[in-house]
Design goal:
The chain is α/β, with parallel strands linked by helices. It is 42% helix and 14% strand. The strands form three sheets. Strands 7, 8, 9, 10, 11 and 12 form a six-stranded mixed sheet that branches. The protein has a four-stranded parallel sheet with strand order 2-1-5-6, with helices on both faces. Strands 3-4 form a two-stranded antiparallel sheet.
Length: 328
């Protein structure tokens, strides 16, 4: 039986999605500034804010974050007064990345100022798919719905297994396995780590950069040239497709870009990192489906085309249209 006095504040976008997937969205009373799915969550009070300007280029954001971290300061702030006003029974935060979301330290410092509600702090640390499952269990246990948590895990695993088996069969039947570079940040260049190498492999790709369960590593353009991937996916953390497209010229302008196999074969893609790939919630499985669609479009069609686009095809069409206009 669900406790009717639950008052949940989620300070991570992914845990907000987990809470809703467990059927407990009605008990949420507050959220972080980054929580935006499902749409109903936007009506809740915001309990956090960044300490830096979030607009600007990837380089400018990188420099602002590094400047704050070099002073051993937190990147985000927690509104202790708002927490006190909302009187939560549970606060969900994370200890995985101080750049991506509010940290455990931030929350603990804010909770020290709380006197009345004494909320239980649930701290998550997702670095892999296995960690995502553990986080679901941890939230399910804290909110007294362990059976729902296990049901969600079983559903995710079922979807993953189905995709992995179809990808393996497609390759066994003669489809060429693609080598893949996933770029998580544009300037400076960063490869995708954590759960992303796992997702690439499960979707039938050969992951070239980043290690499963490890933080995302910096990379050089020369490394991309040397490994010459069949597929390049650009999915910056926190960026939607529109914002990523605004910075794709930084990649296009790199030496030998046009000589890469992925470019020649029109297999450079932009994908929504904010909503999918960089958010370790239930939609990681949607992210896997997106990868499968990109890698092997003849085998997989899940209907996620609004979440990704073929950048080289788009550029090719734009160039053709421009030439046609000049002729006219």
């Amino acid at each position: 039986m669900i406790e009717k006095n639950l008052r949940i504040i989620s300070l991570i976008a992914s845990s907000t999605e987990i809470v809703h997937a467990l059927g407990l969205g009605e008990f949420m009373v507050g959220r972080s500034h980054e929580c935006d799915y499902p749409a109903t969550i936007k009506n809740l009070p915001i309990c956090t804010a960044p300490k830096f300007q979030v607009d600007g280029s990837s380089y400018e954001i990188d420099q602002r974050v590094k400047a704050i971290l070099q002073e051993s300061l937190s990147v985000y702030k927690v509104d202790a007064a708002m927490l006190e006003q909302l009187q939560p029974t549970h606060l969900i935060t994370q200890a995985q990345c101080e750049v991506c979301a509010v940290s455990l330290r931030d929350v603990e410092e804010a909770v020290c100022q709380l006197v009345t509600s004494q909320p239980e702090i649930v701290s998550l640390e997702p670095n892999s798919l296995a960690d995502f499952y553990e986080d679901v269990k941890k939230i399910g246990q804290a909110l007294a719905v362990p059976d729902r948590a296990q049901g969600l895990i079983d559903e995710c695993q079922k979807r993953i297994d189905a995709i992995s088996k179809r990808a393996e069969q497609a390759i066994a039947d003669g489809t060429n396995q693609v080598s893949v570079a996933v770029i998580e940040w544009i300037e400076p260049l960063m490869a995708a780590g954590n759960w992303m190498p796992e997702l690439v492999e499960l979707a039938g790709g050969k992951n070239l950069f980043g290690q499963a369960g490890k933080h995302s590593p910096w990379m050089s353009w020369q490394e991309i040239i040397d490994k010459d991937p069949d597929v390049i996916i650009v999915t910056p953390c926190g960026f939607d497709n529109k914002r990523t497209l605004e910075e794709m010229h930084l990649i296009e302008d790199q030496a030998q870009y046009k000589n890469l196999q992925a470019v020649k074969n029109k297999r450079v893609y932009v994908a929504d990192g904010n909503q999918y790939f960089n958010r370790p919630g239930p939609r990681l499985i949607d992210s896997l489906e997106i990868l499968a669609e990109i890698f092997y479009p003849q085998t997989f069609q899940f209907g996620h085309q609004q979440a990704w686009l073929n950048f080289t095809e788009q550029k090719s069409r734009a160039t053709t249209l421009s030439k046609d206009k000049q002729i006219l």
